[in-house]
Write a structure and sequence with these properties.
The structure is a homodimer of 298-residue chains.
Chain A (H helix, E strand, L loop, with lengths): L3 E8 L5 H12 L5 E8 L4 E8 L1 H18 L15 E10 L3 H19 L3 E5 L10 H5 L2 H10 L19 E5 L4 E7 L4 H11 L9 E8 L2 E8 L7 H14 L4 E7 L9 H6 L11 H8 L1
Parallel strand pairs in A: 4-6, 5-6
Antiparallel strand pairs in A: 1-3, 1-4, 2-3, 7-9, 7-10, 8-9
Helix pairs in contact in A: 1-2, 2-3, 6-7
């Protein structure tokens, strides 16, 4: 037992397996952390590595991963469906056990300072760890991606980094923060028309007046239109509710939901057995369940 | 303690308080039952009386209420927003405690036979108590109301009564059945345009491809457009989810949700304190909670 923090690190490489393996290997070989999962997607051109451990150990492992990603990934040549500003694009810490949000925020800010000062990357603190209101929302920092940020940072226009230089190398910027557990959940349509996925995303996401606690984007992934989501409070707006709303929108637009997938882990109480079928989750098994993974650790 | 059945009787009178009082009084004075609530709505022109008791006592009280309603309500002169075929329009029994669905079905069928033979009303057995598949769904029996039924029953066209005569008196027909607990839940829009309420109902109800376990109609009530719903499995499709979907549809159609109301009772676990605000329920207090009412009985 003891304090346990989760890090769900997002890196901008989902195609070259050797690069992905090198970053995951770097994290996995750090002292005192356990990698619970690593997934990559060639269309997103992105990898997500989930690891847990005592707060300081998780921070050190994240630092090593950020450094490695910066050495291996060149944003000048990066193309992909998913918005991104850097090689180590987003590094959120999540308090899991015997640790509070305040400590997790402190952990994120300390890592941000270290990355900014010693790796010389512009660091943006987001969500609960934000020091500037304009940087609280990831979508605001990441809008227009690396390309837009490069132009803006050069002339001192927002988003303004909290640490590090006011210019970008080809490793881009790094968003670091603390947040509560969320569910990353993607729904595929039976259509390649990304305009439909975007229309559905616009209808259901909170920011345009849709479902509370839902962030959504329309993307083109594996030859299909995808509604890519974060559910930031799955108790208030459940996966079932999101899927029901998407089905209604899809029908209106003449398409069907084809399948769904979970990225990373999800808490046990987010899902019943009945739900797995209703939600058409393609990639579900017990290893997706956070509690199942934690039970194997301790 | 002991076996407890609930009856949620729907009568086609929501305007003349003396008529409503007479029917409620008849039920209330029957032996061994307790009336938990009685509500009427002048726009629906309809009253709902919720009572509980041991199965046979509840059946006797329902019989007395059906008889009284048939004496006092004339369907030839009845006008209202809500679909209906009879004075005692729908009489569903719900197993609450120490009684199974099979027993509740038997109770409904026995009452149906008695009402058909001794009160001389055409009786349609529905939901779990249905003897004909075509009568299982209330909306199919009730489509076109008393007026359509009158023409059809005269020539032997469906819906075919399970008991009683093949003709209608001015008391109309009576739908009797057994079902699981449902939540009757209405959402008001900030518009009098009933076409919008109908469009929203069509978008969200299961029968037209919307939310699972949701039945919905668009009506005009108290000067406002209303989406009138039954949630037949509130654990699978929650009140929150329904409201979230209605808000999305409403926004698309340029209106807002103004408020909501519960008809009858609802189970404690259908609603959290946070929900009452999110759902904008105008008429919520603890007396709406079934468990609260049952705790006061025993």
């Amino acid at each position: 037992m003891g304090a346990l923090v989760e890090c769900v690190a997002n890196f901008s490489e989902g195609r070259q397996q050797t690069v992905i393996d090198s970053i995951v290997g770097t994290i996995d070989s750090a002292n005192g952390v356990i990698v619970l999962g690593a997934e990559s997607d060639p269309d997103h051109n992105r990898a997500v590595v989930t690891f847990v451990g005592p707060p300081d150990r998780v921070s050190d492992a994240a630092y090593a991963g950020i450094q490695r990603a910066g050495e291996l990934i060149d944003l000048e040549r990066h193309r992909g469906q998913h918005p991104r500003i850097g090689a180590a694009d987003v590094i959120p810490f999540v308090p899991l056990r015997e640790v509070g949000m305040a400590e997790t925020v402190a952990l994120a800010r300390k890592l941000g300072k270290r990355v900014g000062e010693t790796l010389n990357l512009p660091v943006f603190l987001y969500e609960q760890a934000a020091l500037q209101e304009g940087n609280r929302n990831l979508a605001d920092i990441r809008r227009g991606g690396y390309e837009r940020l490069k132009g803006r940072i050069a002339v001192g226009e927002p988003p303004i980094p909290d640490f590090g230089p006011g210019r970008l190398s080809s490793a881009g910027g790094c968003v670091i923060g603390a947040r509560n557990l969320l569910i990353a959940f993607n729904v595929f349509l039976d259509s390649p028309d990304v305009a439909i996925a975007r229309a559905i995303a616009r209808a259901i996401r909170q920011s345009s007046g849709g479902l509370p606690h839902v962030k959504a984007l329309g993307l083109f992934v594996k030859g299909r239109a995808q509604v890519s989501m974060n559910l930031t409070n799955y108790k208030m707006t459940s996966m079932r509710c999101v899927v029901a709303a998407i089905r209604i929108e899809a029908r209106r637009l003449g398409v069907k939901m084809a399948a769904s997938e979970i990225i990373g882990l999800l808490p046990q109480d987010a899902l019943s057995e009945v739900d797995v079928a209703y939600l058409q989750i393609e990639n579900f098994d017990q290893s997706r369940v956070l509690e199942h993974q934690l039970a194997n650790l301790t």
